[in-house]
Amino acid sequence: MDLEELMILLAMVLSQLQGNKMVFDLRLIMIDSLSALFNAVPAKPAQYFSLIKELLFYFKSLTKKHFISVVYTNNTKDSAVVHRVTEVKTIVGEPLNWAVDK
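User: That's the sequence. What structure does it adopt?
Assistant: Structure tokens below.
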């Protein structure tokens, strides 16, 4: 799954949650691996970075408004842009209080 596909999926999940149309009780979303989404920055980096900010918005909405846990791994092998998850904050300019590097 690439970043655009993940955004579409999260938008659909959030839409179903807001409309009370979810047919099952969603409590956890697991993403493997978050850094894989940042492997290649396309020719339009401004558009790419706005997608990353939107991704963070979806994570915040799911966790704070709908109490759904978002767990992700950060496999950094072959990562060209992001080697540690806390480096994402330098790319998007957002504080990532929830990000922990191990």
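The chain is about 40% helix and 10% strand.
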